[in-house]
Design a protein that fits this description.
Distance between the termini: 68 Å
Low-confidence stretches: none
Number of strands: 0
Order of helices and strands: HHHH
Number of domains: 1
Mean pLDDT: 85
Shape: rod-shaped
Structural class: mainly alpha
Largest sheet: none
Strand content: under 5%
């Protein structure tokens, strides 16, 4: 019995250049954008909340009349963990977004896109990269107590 190799198959399905397939492609592209925006919102929340926890508890420990905490470094470690998770989420989401874009612009799908490759650029990727840099700076600011 002969083994089937999925990589050897010439086409998994037929791509027809129709208005319906073009609009399906656009819906898929916009879905990719929405997913990336959701990742960015989640990363902003994680980074911001992590940084806020660190700042709040450092200020709270400096308040006179407050009992000393049992483990004073716990808020710092929690904040660093949240910031690191936010930055990691951004890195993963950027990778996933780029993979999705490359797939949508693959040979047989380029015909149904209906526009040239650079036609649907959004500032989303630039915002995600800038946020990743901000998150990385926030992480090191907390590590080296620059705030």
């Amino acid at each position: 019995m002969e083994k089937l190799n999925p990589d050897a198959a010439p086409d998994r399905f037929e791509v027809k250049t129709t208005a319906e397939s073009h609009f399906s492609w656009l819906r898929t592209r916009l879905s990719l954008e929405r997913t990336m925006m959701s990742w960015v919102r989640t990363a902003i929340s994680l980074i911001g909340f992590g940084f806020t926890i660190v700042q709040f508890f450092e200020r709270l420990q400096q308040t006179p009349g407050i009992a000393a905490p049992f483990f004073p470094e716990a808020p710092r470690y929690l904040g660093l963990s949240l910031i690191a998770c936010g930055v990691a989420a951004l890195v993963i989401s950027i990778w996933q977004y780029e993979w999705g874009l490359r797939y949508l612009w693959a040979g047989e799908f380029a015909g149904i896109a209906g526009v040239r490759r650079g036609g649907l650029q959004t500032p989303l990727l630039a915002v995600a990269i800038a946020l990743g840099l901000i998150g990385t700076l926030a992480f090191f600011a907390v590590v080296f107590r620059l705030t």
